[in-house]
Amino acid sequence: MNQKTLLLRQVHPSWVQQGRASSQAFRPTPKDEKQLSAYDGDQITAVKAWEHYTGILGLSSTGVLAVGECQGLSLLVNPDSSRFAEHVLIDFTPYTENEIKRKAKQLKALAECRGWQYRVQADV
Amino acid sequence: MTYRGIVSNGVVVLEGEKPAEGTIVDVTPRALSHARDLDISYRLAELRELKDGWLDGKGKAPASEGLDWLSSAFATRYPRGSILPYLYPTAEGDVLAEWTLGDWEASLEIDLASHSAEWHALDVQSGREASRKLDLDSDDAWRWLGTEIRRLAEGGA
Fold first, then answer.
1. pLDDT value at position A31?
2. Contacts of residue B53 in chain A, CB cutoff 8 Å?
3. Please, what's the b/e burial string for B17-55 (b: 16 or more CB within 10 A of its CB; e: otherwise)?
4. Residue pLDDT, tens place only, B103-145
5. Is A121 in CB contact (< 8 Å) with chain B?
6. Which pLDDT score is estimated for B47?
7. Phi, psi of A58 (to 5 degrees)
8. pLDDT computed for residue B84 by the predictor
């Protein structure tokens, strides 16, 4: 993993409306303790990550978005192979809720520009 | 001349050049499908289907009475013709409204129990941002919201 690595983020179906993902997809929920899970895109493709997330972990995802700008937003990314080999954590712990909200919107906008890396079913 | 139409609070709002009064226009099924997807009551009905645990075992379902209130509030108080938001459930059982308005990413975190809300807008290019607390039982708050959305859609100057 390096500065150019794309981090693959699974997006819950309820956080997509008409193909537009919510900024919540890039904001840790209370259960996440300010650590946002993603896949290391150097180690796994978007489709394989989606298959792993939904098939092996049994979690819900309607598709995969990617960000590569964490360092530019002063977000540390730490490998966390304790869960699975390609797992990384984006660390929001230094930041207040308002700062997290701002960074999540920036990540969402960047990911949206990059486009869906994998999508279960595109909107008509 | 072909016009495109968007349904806003039950009224078809035509995009582009304003047609002359009395002009009969056709709205295509595709346009209506698009409108349905952003229609507030349709989307809130979708959120009503969520059960506790919807977020892979963790998310709280939005309260039905809260969604009733929000649906009614949008229908009666959201300024007619304003750009419709995308609506998403939150893990805490509330609703997050979001707009992408040019470079601005705007959101309104709506507390369904207290009817309060937190507005936040960020210009993702310049980093400019603004936030404000709103009481959605107040007509003034909805008027302010409509004005602010229009202002940001025009560039936010």
1. 82
2. none
3. eeeeeeeeeeeeeebeebbebbbbeebbeebeebeeebb
4. 999 999 999 999 999 999 999 999 999 999 999 999 999 999 9
5. no
6. 97
7. 70, 30
8. 95
Q: Is the predicted pLDDT of residue A106 greater than 70, yes or no?
A: yes
* CA pair distance B128, B130, nearest whole angstrom: 7
Per-residue pLDDT band at A41 (split at 50, 70, 90)? very high
A17/B43 Cβ within 8 A: yes
> Residues B25-34: contacts with CB within 8 Å, 24+ apart?
B27/B3, B30/A124, B31/B4, B31/B5, B31/B6, B32/B5, B32/B7, B33/A124, B34/A18, B34/B6
**pTM, full prediction:** 0.86
Strand B86-89 to B11-15 pairing:
unpaired
B87/A17 touch (CB, cutoff 8 Å), yes or no: yes
A vs B, Cβ pairs < 8 A, gives: 63
Residues whose CB falls within 8 Å of the CB of residue A38, separated by 6 or more in sequence, listed in order = A7, A8, A9, A67, A77, A87, A88, A89, A90
Cα B79 to Cα A21, B3, B43, B74, distances in angstroms: 25, 22, 18, 8
CA triple B127-B153-A119, angle to 5 deg = 80
Give pLDDT, residue A124.
Answer: 39
Q: Give the residues of chain B that fall short of pLDDT 70.
A: 1-38
3-state secondary structure of B2: coil
